Amino acid sequence: MKKKKVLFITPFFPSFVLSDIQILRENFKVNINHYPWQHKHLAPVFFFLQFFSVLFNSIRVDAFVVSFGGYWSVWPAIIGKIFRKKTYIILHGTDCASIPELNYGSLRLPLLKAACRYSYRYSSCLLPVSESLTNTYLDFDQTINHKSQGIYQHFPNLKTRIITVHNGFDPEIWPFKGFEMKPAGSFIAVMSKPQYQLKGGDLIEEVATLFPNLDFKIAGMDSPEEPYPANLHFLGKLQQQKLSEVYRNSRYYLQLSSFEGFGCALAEAMLSGCIPIGSSVNHIPYIIADYGLILPQKNKGLLQKAINQLLSLDQPEEMSRNARRHIIETFPISLRKEKISHLLDHYEEQN
Q1: Using alpha carbons only, what angle is made at residue 180 by residues 174 and 181, rounded to the nearest 5 degrees?
Q2: Rounded CA separation 240/189 (Å)
């Protein structure tokens, strides 16, 4: 059978986007449309160029798949509507939120919000990676005033079909070599510098001073210029293989986000046998389930108690193994592959 052709549009290439491209390539012929949209002053140029690229591809492909809503999703949605090509937009988090207090969310910027509005309205189907991206209430971080988030909060009249497709993970990419390799008192978190407050880096910094004998690491960013505790180490941006090694050599994982589209690093760490402490937002409690601890509020004292609770576990090895098994069973890469492939092949049958 002849493979269908897909134009995949993305502004970035994080690991979960590369994973989706690989998933699609197994069943479809995939062309990539990418411009460096992070150079904001060039966005009008990219917007102009992309129009012709998408228009040209509209006669060559069977569907458009867009990762993240934004300026880059407008032309695929509109041209797809005009030429009756199915357009799917995968929503990851920032494209469903507006949190000015944390300088986070595409929807806090009027022009970018307008781009998302038109994209979501004219697309065939929206594919958020968690149910919380449609509607959620944030009560973890008390500094946030804009607590109601999700696309239905920002676009209440949206009629486009929405199907949640959770992220999926390959246990072979994130292996577990044994609990005995993990030093006692070793904690890891993953975030970039702009995400420091959003992902709870400030809280980790505070609690590190309370546990001078424990080892806290943050991957994804270099050391800040401001003073920080001696037992808090910044590893910089790591390639996947090195990050996997860091997970395997850490006993606990901290996902203290004030908002989190899904929590890919959390799932990767649990696959690697890390026992997590996570915030009570979005999909994080469902990822952790009974295989870690949930922090109800962003509070140093509560985190201190949670860390002491983890340190006093009678059978941490068992929880470590169960955390990995939970991710393998609940979020397999095969399930995401099956759902996305079925959507692209049989969308009309589901309407």
Answers
A1: 55
A2: 14
Q: Which two tokens stand for residue 287?
A: 């990822």
* Closest C-alpha among 261, 141, 257, 143 to residue 199: 257
Query: Residue 68: enclosing H or E segment and its boundaries?
Result: none
**233 Cβ contact partners less than 8 Å away, ≥ 6 residues apart:** 215, 216, 217, 218
**Integer Cα distance of 165 and 95 in angstroms:** 16
147-189 tens-digit pLDDT: 999 999 999 999 999 999 999 999 999 999 888 889 999 999 9
Q: Which of 66-70, 240-244, 342-346 has the lowest mean pLDDT?
A: 342-346
Instruction: Quote the CA–CA distance of 246 and 316 in Å, as a whole number.
Output: 18
Alpha-carbon span 111 to 116, nearest angstrom:
9
Percent helix, strand, coil in the chain, to 5, is 45, 20, 40
Distance in Å from the first CA to the final CA of the chain: 24
Q: Is the dihedral of CA 268, 273, 278, 283 positive or negative?
A: positive
The letter for the amino acid at 287 is I
Strand partners, 286: none
Closest CA to 112 of 30, 174, 43, 186: 43
Q: Is residue 342 classed as helix, strand or coil in its secondary structure?
A: helix
Encode 25-57: b = buried (16+ Cβ within 10 Å), e = exposed. Answer: eebbebeebbbebeeeeebeebbeebeebbeeb
**Model confidence pLDDT, tens digit, residues 198-225:** 999 999 999 999 999 999 999 999 998 8
Q: Which residue has the tokens 């937002």?
A: 281
Domains and their CATH numbers in the chain: 5-166+332-350 (3.40.50.2000), 179-330 (3.40.50.2000)
Which burial class, exposed, middle or buried, applies to 186 when counting CB atoms under 10 A from its CB (0-12, 13-18, 19+)? middle
Query: Three-state DSSP class for 121?
Result: helix
Q: What is the DSSP letter of 233?
A: E
For residue 217, the surrounding DSSP H or E stretch is strand 215-219
Which amino acid makes up residue 246? V
